[in-house]
Structures are given as C-alpha cells and as structure tokens.
Amino acid sequence: MADQEGELQLFSQCKVCIICSKDLTADTAHQLASRFEENGGETVIYEPPATFPPLTEFTHLMSCTIDFPAFDAASDSLIPIVKPYWLQACLQKRKLANPRQYSPDPRLFLNDVVITCGDIPGGDKEAIIGGVLAKGGIYSAKVSQQVTHLVDLTADSDKARLIIAKKLNIKIVLPHWFDDCLKLGRRIDERPYTLPDPEILRAAPDAPIRSSENRDIIGASTTDPASLPSSVKSPDAQPKLTVFQGKHIMLCADLGIGPRLSGSIEEIINNGGGSVTSDVSKADILICRYRDGFPYRMASRLNKDVGNISWLYHIMTYNTWTSPLRRLLHYPVSRSGIQGFKGLKISLSNYVGEARAYLENLITATGAECTKTLKQENTHLVTAHGNSEKCAAAKEWGLHVVNHLWLEESYAKWKLQPVSDPRYTHFPKRTNLGEVVGHTRLDKSVLESMFFPSESTVQAPASPRRVMQSKEQNTMAAKPSGFMQPPSAKVTESESEVPQPQGTTPRAIGKSRKSIDSHKLQTPVRARLTSEGKENDTPSSTSSRKSKEAATARLHEIAPDIALYEKELKRVGGVIYGGRRKTDEDRVTLSNSKKRRSMEAGDESDADPTEAKKQKKARPAVAMHLLITGYQKWVGNLKKEDSDKRQLRDLGILVVQDARKCSHIAAPSILRTPKFVNALAYGRTIVSVDFITQCLKQDELLDPADFPLEDEASEKKYGFSLEETMTNAKDNKNKLLRGYHVYCVETIRGGFDAFKSIVDANGGEISPFRGRVSYRSQREESDDESLEEEGHSGRDVYLLSSTSQDQVKLWPRFRQMVLGTGKTPRIVRVDWLLDIAMSQTMRAADAYELDEEMVERSE
C-alpha cells in the first residue's frame, strides 16, 4: 500500500506544460496528461497559436521540439524541457529521471539514440557511452524495445544474432559512426557504418560518394526570396492559416518590397487572423532585412520575434511557428559582414541543390566573395567530402580546405573561426556532409552583444549570467520570446537612440529589487526604457542618478558570484569539468600571494586548516618555459620522463613542445631536429642538458646562464656561429624567408611537416609537390616590389628533394610548372634550408642544387 502511494505521488511536486506540435498531437497530449495526473502531477496542455501561459506556473515543459514561443525564456529560467519519453523513464525508475538525457534540443544531436554495446573493447565501450550520454543519448545494458543502435565490430556477436533472429528494428553499427559524429558535432547518416556489410570498409578510396537532398533548409536557402511561395498565393488551395491568429506584424521599410507585394502579404496575414501594424511597441513580430535601425533594436530588446521575409514565407507555407534563430538565413543580415571575411574568395564543392544555394548566400552574408569556379587566387574551398579534383587542386595550391561547419559557425558566432580546428577539416570516408547542412542555430547572446546591447548597462568586469536560486526569480530574468503579449508602454525613438556600450549583458544588471519581488513575467528591457513607471518619460538627471544607484547596488549584490566565477576561470580545464589532474605538467596553480589575498577577504578565524596546508604545498609560478630535445635519459623511459617533468614544474620550469611558446631550449649539442632549428629562428636562449640534470639533482632552479651550450665541432661542421645566429635571429624577426616559395616532395626523408614547421618559423611559404602541373602565385604581383627592396627578386621557386628515383621523376613536372609561370625552378637538397635556418642568413642555392647528371654519377 505504501509502495502504491509512493508511486501515485511520484509527480506530486511537478506541474508540466505539454506543448502540442505536428509530432505531438492533442490526443497524445491528453493521454500523457492523464498518466501524469494518475501519478500525482498537474498538467496544462498548450495548443498553438494560443497565448503561452506564464512560465512561473511550471516545473517542466514537455515537447518534441524546441520550436515553440517560450523556449528561449524557459532556457533562461532553467526550466527543464523534456520529450514525452521522460515520463515513461520516470515511471520505470520510480524516480524523476535526469531531464538532460531527454531534451529535444538539437544541440544534443544524439538525443534520439538509445545504444547498447556488443563485443567491443572495454575502453572503447566507456568512451562511446560517455560521448552518447554527453550528447543527449541513453545507454541500455541489455537489448530492449527502446534500443535504437547496437555498437559492435561484427554481426556474429550474441546481441547481433539476437537482433537479427527476432527482426528487431535496431541498427547494428560500427564504433566509427559515433567517432565521426562526435568529431563533427553533428549526427550523420549511419548507413555507411551499418553491419554486416559496412560501406566504409568495402568501398574503394576514389569511389564516388552519394549526395542526398537536405530537406531541412528548403525555404531557408536565401534571405531575399523573389516572390511569395506558390502554396500561399491562392488561399483556397490550403487550410486557413492559424499561425498569425491574434498577432500583430510589422513590416520594415528596409525590406524594399513594392506596394503590390506588401498588399498581398497584408491580405494573407489578415485572412489568418492577424494584423499589420506600423508601431513597433504594439508588434509581436518584426520583419526586416538588416540588423540595424530603431525598430530592429527596439523589438530585439523587447524579446519580440525578429525575422526576415524568408522566415515569414516559411511560417506561411507550413502554418507552423518556428524560431527565426533556428536557421541562419531566416534572420536579418548585417550590412557590413563579419570582420576578417572581406577579401576572402570562397568556392564550393560537392554540395548540390538547396544546400549549395544556401551556402552561396551564406558566403555573401559573411561579406566574402563566392566564386563559381576554383582558381589559384581563391583562399578557401568549402567541400562536403574530400574525394574530388577540386579538393586535390586546392590542397596542392595551399588553399584552406574546410567543411561547411566552419562557415556556419563563423556566421553564428559572428567571428572568423580558425581553420585549424579539427572539426572543420574532418571528412568521414563515405559521408556527404551536405546532409547536415543547416543544423547550426544563431546564438542570441552573440546577437545581443554585437547588434542590440542595452544602452543603460553599467560597464563592469565581464561576468557570467547569474543563476538565480528560485524558479520565480529565473523566470523574471527574461521575458519569453515568441507569441507573448508585448508591453503596452510605447517608447519614443529619442529614448532608444542613446549611444550603446558594446559587449554588455543587460539581464543581470538592469533590474531593480522591486521587479524581482513582483513574481510576474515581465520584460526587463521595459524597466530600462521607462523611468518610474511613466510612459514616454524623457530621462532626467534624477532618474539617471537613480538608475546608477540601482546598478551600483546590483553590482554589489552579484559581486560574490563574479568573484567565484573568475576564480574558477583561472582553473585550467574549464569551470564545469574540474580542471586538470594534479600531476599534469601544464597545470596552472595560483601563487601563495594570490591565495593569501583571497583568504584575507574572508574571516581568518574560519579558515580551513587543510586549505592552509594546501597553500604551503602550492607550486611556484612558472619562471621558465623550456623546450627539450635530445635528452637521452628520457629516451625509452616514459615513467622517468613524467617524474622529472613534474619535479621540474615544482621548481618553476614548465616543459613545452612548441618553439613559439618556449623561453629556453635545452640540447646536448647543436642538432638538426625541428625543435632545435625552429628555436633558433625565434632567438631563444640555448642551454646544455646539464642544466636539467643539475636542477633535478639539486632540486632547485639554477641560473641557466651557468649552463651555456658550447659545441665548436658542430659549428665548424655546419659553418656557422651560434652566437651570431642568435644576433641574426633577433634582427630577422622570423622574416628571413619572407617572399620565398618552397615546394617539398611528400616522400622527403624526415617528413613534409618537419620542413613546413621550419619554413613557417622563418616567414616563408611551403607546399607539398605531388607532380601536378599547377602553381599558386597569389603574391607574385603584389609582393614583387617589396621583395626587390629586401634583396630577393621573387623569381626563384625551390623544390626540396633527394636523389631517390621516386623523387627524381617529379623534377621534369616541377620545371614545367615553374617555367610556365615565368619563374626559375631550383631543385635543392634539404641542407640548403637547414643551413639557412641554422645560420639565420641566406645561402646561395648553387652549392645545393641537384640535377640528373649528379644522379647518374652517384649510380
């Protein structure tokens, strides 16, 4: 009896709003509501386009999608949003399940996946389960009806045979599928990874990859559609629109549409129960083209829906509300483009249909130029996979080859993203990435900071949005976007055209204590735009002073949160996941002086003695960043290497691997390793490895000046002076090879990457040479004048090679390529580059040149 009562009261503390959509019908919603109420919960069923009920009433929202008006406000208020399956999981567990694993948020791209694992190694199993759980999926130890995927290496395992015998609707996939999904941050088609005959294992490397039409961006591939959708031109051809019921829509003048089209749009809205207004304060929806102007900033600050004409046509066509932030080209564009994109020339490859049109328009919206064909003057190639002639040519010419995620995320974050991010250069073997085009959403916080920051926000140190402690306070922090009732107060244009500080976060600061305690859903922006509750009141010195006093009080109130967050930011590894291990060589710790200051801020009598003990054992600040090469005591002994690195860190020496980040380099002698040669280019202080040995032996940080590297034999052998090299490096400032273009055969001894690092460290350009007759000459005209002034004509092009037969056969093609551009081909030994880099002076190529006669003599 007690068990039954406990089960009935499972949801006794819950009040759930069930949101109807095309995937969650009203009948299903009523069935879910009945089950909730049977177990002690309260429910409200929301059917669009009705006004959304106040969020303060609910502990959970249930929806199959995030496309409902109150999603942003619910997220800001930390109200969990769950899929219907959450109810069943709670009843099975007899407790409230973690809502994150049942979120409909597409950013948790594995949220529809329930996996079980077959005969795979334990380490791989743990990694896959962790990745799936982190991205919204669920793990099941056994095969059940809820399982969607079995992860296995063969179809002969016990679980696989069970699934095949019972004909269960469960896909058996290789672990490679999860690996590629997690690398991309997107869910891709699992068909090429499906057992028993996975395509990624049997297809030839050059086999064509299928292309599939992406329906997710239909109607969202352009910001400026030419005409009304055919489906809404004739009202009799479809059911009556309900998406505009009771809504006020404002069409901005910057749309540039004629009176005829404007009249047609207004007629459609009126027939759907809505109305068109010219007053932004009365509008629920603003349709505009650009991210500027008073109506745009006003509507955005009031959390109204702001979209472009393409978004308006989309909701007309489908008669369903979707967020204008869901698709990148459903939101107004910027007139100026993204900083860093102007001047870029981007070409597309392997994208078809709507996906190609979408990416072409997205490139234009960033401010870059989209070229139909790939030329040598291009800067980037955006491709859906790596198997094409365009990709091969782009790599040979040294262009950046990336997938569309680089373009989409640069646009969403409004910042040029680094092409070095592995997510942007990952291409699964048998997948056309056109299938995941259009899955990136706009970030509202980025839009706010860049395009409509609050004019009354106090300039303060950057701090996170404060997580309030009660649900009512969280709901107060932001008004729900979407079809919510707008404030009745009008705001004059003069009040809103105040100069706006950049990079501000309005919600945490621009609220008074009175508004927080009112327990009503309000728009915080209204408090900023009016003074003392009066409509259209011109700001006075009194109200301005009161606003400053309120803001100052608010800053004092949230100061502990800011201090705690900034303290956590100093912990390497991030705030959420707990930083680095204590044994990590690059773990950063606070100095004792900083810890003492933080201790003194509190009551000394309450100080934890264990904390004081930890303070005494804190590592010192990093005094030296040391790059080590050729240290024989560590060769083949990883345990000793780790132990010694920890001891060195305790002495204030951090061992690094990059010459750009080091202050000193330790070596047993003058070496020709990439580490040593690159460190010379940066003019780093060079010491003997005896410095390491003695520091470890004496357990103290010694003076590196007492351990200079002296190696007269190597200086004589290589023909340079280490002291002169240091002086030359400081004068060169990593520009010794500026204007030089070097090619390198891929099979060169030592590897292409090693020589690339050397050329890069000295300011030159280097590309792999694979035998194609082509040449990238993007600097050949613009740099000629400056190079002549620096003593280099820019007429020579170099190929690093050896006399092995597989490399010699490439020489004629290299000469043909260079001579075709009017340049002089110079085929040289790698010693030419190494001697230049080690002496930090230019060397004539004559003594290093190779030709066929030398090969014949050597044979």
Automatic annotation (TrEMBL):
UniProt cross-references to PANTHER family, sorted A to Z: REGULATOR OF TY1 TRANSPOSITION PROTEIN 107
Protein name: BRCT domain-containing protein
InterPro entries: BRCT_dom, BRCT_dom_sf, CellCycle_DNARepair_Reg
Pfam families named in the record: BRCT, PTCB-BRCT, RTT107_BRCT_5
GO cellular component, one term: Cul8-RING ubiquitin ligase complex
Chain positions covered by the region annotation Disordered: 455-552, 584-619, 775-794
SUPFAM superfamilies, alphabetized: BRCT domain (SSF52113)
Gene Ontology process terms (BP): DNA double-strand break attachment to nuclear envelope; double-strand break repair
Residue ranges of domain BRCT in the record: 6-104, 104-195, 341-424, 616-709
